[in-house]
Amino acid sequence: MDTRTLVAVSAAALTLGLLAGCGDDAKAPAGAAAGSAAPQATGEPWYDEVAPASSGGTTGGTGSPCPVPVSFPLADGWTAKAIEAPKGELAELVGEALTKRGGTTVRCEVDGRSAGGGFLRIWAADSPPVTPRGALESFAAGAGETVAGQQFRDLRAGGFDATEMTWLATNPLAEEEESRNWALAVQSAGQTLVFAVNEGLITERTDVLPAYRLAVRGLAKSE
Question: For the chain, what is the mean pLDDT?
């Protein structure tokens, strides 16, 4: 993809947000023990000292704005919206680039801008047999960014065994801007789901991690 196309994709991603409707386990910090229900690894890169947000409702399941086979709590002031592929002139150029990433398709977005936060997006793997770790590795590599510092840990996320990943990403259009990303994957009803947030130009970890932590720690099965 050339620079002009990358610029178009980045611009369209911002528009969609407004309209929306391989790692080394040995590097995991002390305290991030496999299978731990509530890991405590303070500071870089997990920041477990950032507490979950207060709940303002739930979403998930058939008929909800987030039609996935799990339910999860929403941070107070955050709202879930289904994401549809863009239409019109941008559709052919960036439609798939905005809704597909590393073997996953976005299912919904939880918007926290009105509460001073960012976005939490939920993706579903296109290939059901993929493992949570495999889905995370492909997801991180699927944005066309330079990925570094991948770390993984296994833990409990609500009622599920889960794998969590954190990494640093650098956009080729802004090589000096490095962002920290977090994502967690679970399997439910034959689907592998990825919950993902990241720091950005106008969002910090304290803007996105509370809502993310609330959601993944409250995961429950749904239809």
Answer: 83
Helix residue ranges per DSSP H, the chain: 3-19, 91-99, 132-141, 205-217
Q: How high is the pLDDT of residue 38?
A: 61
Burial 86-112 (b: 16+ CB within 10 A, else e): beeebeeebbebbbebbbbebbbbbbb
Cα within 13 Å of Cα(166), Cβ side: 19
Q: What is the CA radius of gyration of the chain?
A: 16
Q: What is the dihedral of CA 192, 184, 197, 1, to 10 degrees?
A: -50
The answer, as to whether pTM is greater than 0.70, is yes
- Report residue 160 as tokens: 């599920």
What type of residue sits at position 55?
S
Distances (CA, A) of 207 to 121, 176, 200, 201: 14, 22, 10, 12
| 130-148 residue pLDDT tens | 999 999 999 999 988 999 9
Q: Which residue type does 167 have?
A: W
Compute the distance between CA of residue 32 and CA of residue 164 in angstroms, rounded to an integer: 10
